[in-house]
Amino acid sequence: MVSTRKADQIKSPADWVGKSLGVTGLGAGSHLMLQYLAGNNGVPIGQVTFIPAGAGNTFIAGLQQGKIDAGWATDPTISRLLKTGEAKVLVDLRTPAAARGPLGGDYPFISVWLKADYIQSHKPEVQRLVNAYVKTLKWISTHRR
Fold first, then answer.
1. What are the C-alpha distances in Å from 37 to residues 31, 90, 133, 139?
2. DSSP-assigned beta bridge partners for residue 2
3. 77 vs 36, 70, 71, 86, 104, CA distance in Å?
């Protein structure tokens, strides 16, 4: 999403240089995705400021107050911002077809966040979990409606 006030300046991730982008939290999936989109559009990560703006009301407040120029949001936040006219969709990842353009393929976002010391002390269990995720994604990719 991009603030309507900034929409004339920010038309794609290539325009993020020097801008403040809202993410749910530093290190969160939203942060990683915006870093990917920035880098994939030629914007060095060090030239973007990532602000932990949360989601919902806190994200909306960040846009309203000008603390963030653009950022990662999901529904119902997207719908609320579109309804009020306070923001516009900049990169649409809400459907598989829409996500294929900016990501170059499907976006089956699943993840497990583990601390390194846990992984080191539970290698067999972690490997089984990873194997289950890989098998699940392979199954999903071969069983379309």
1. 10, 11, 24, 27
2. 70, 88
3. 22, 13, 11, 11, 25
Q: Rounded to an integer, what distance in angstroms lies between the CA atom of residue 22 and that of residue 51?
A: 5
Q: State the residue for tokens 């809202």.
A: 22
- Long-range (24+ apart) CB contacts under 8 A made by 32-39 are 33/72, 33/93, 34/71, 34/72, 37/13, 37/91, 37/102, 38/13
Whole-angstrom distance, CA of residue 3 vs CA of residue 87 = 4
Give me 46's structure tokens: 């060090």
pLDDT 10s per residue in the chain (145 long)?
999 999 999 999 999 999 999 999 998 889 999 999 999 999 999 999 999 999 999 999 999 999 999 999 988 999 999 999 999 999 998 888 888 889 888 776 667 778 899 999 999 999 999 999 889 888 888 887 6
